[in-house]
Design goal:
With about 210 residues, this protein is α/β, with parallel strands linked by helices. The chain folds into two domains: about 130 residues, Rossmann fold; about 60 residues, Winged helix-like DNA-binding domain superfamily/Winged helix DNA-binding domain (Arc Repressor Mutant, subunit A). The chain has ten helices and five strands, in the order αβαβαβαβαβααααα.
Length: about 210
């Protein structure tokens, strides 16, 4: 059973400015977001749970580790967490560099509360969509791995568009046996049609997102 707390999106804030952390925490609380704030990037990185949905609000200029360095650490870990950079005057070039490395967006201080909230909502939406795609891929992978080796052979030939008679010849089996394997493949994969089966197989082979 999933931990219900871990399925609730968490908006995390990393900023060495205590006043900014408190202001953001209060703002996010008013609209019901679960939040966690950190003064030190190292503390955030130590507790970071990549399975927890949400987004990260990250100050770009901090004494111990810059926001850009934090983002690089997340990238090395394969994190998908959308990052919203908070920049001071003169830090915009750094923020642009961060976006080239995968940051979601940036805001220059001082900013309007609504501008931040809009970006947070967009980041949370993107995170949910990304996780849904990954879970869908994982589910298809699990279904494929539930097939017998022979059924895996059959699916590859079916998605190539080969008829049962041809598949039977290729595999040295009777056409009736291929029909049974094919029916099992469709059921185990949860395929509604051959087109649906082809799409799932393409996702497995990395040819289609």
């Amino acid at each position: 059973m999933r931990d219900s707390k871990k399925t609730v999106p968490l908006v995390q804030v990393v900023d060495d400015d205590e006043g900014m952390r408190r202001a953001l925490e209060a703002l996010l609380a008013t609209i019901g977001h679960a939040t966690a704030t950190f003064a030190r990037p190292a503390d955030f990185l130590q507790q970071h749970d990549p399975t927890r949905p949400g987004c990260l609000i990250l100050d770009i200029r901090m004494p111990q580790m810059s926001g850009l360095e934090v983002q690089q650490q997340l990238n090395l870990r394969g994190s998908m967490l959308p990052v919203i950079m908070i920049t001071g005057h003169g830090d915009v070039p750094m923020a642009v560099q961060a976006m080239k490395h995968g940051a979601f967006d940036f805001l220059e201080k001082p900013f309007r509360d609504q501008d931040l909230l809009d970006r947070i909502n967009a980041a949370l939406k993107l995170d949910a969509e990304n996780r849904e795609v990954i879970e869908r891929h994982a589910d298809i992978r699990r279904r494929f791995e539930s097939l017998t080796p022979r059924e895996q052979d059959v699916i590859k030939l079916v998605v190539d568009g080969r008829a049962n008679k041809v598949i039977a010849i290729d595999l040295g089996l009777s056409e009736r046996t291929i029909e049974i394997h094919r029916a099992n493949v469709m059921e185990k994969m949860g395929a509604r049609s051959i087109a649906h089966l082809v799409k799932m197989h393409l996702m497995l082979t990395g040819e289609n997102g």
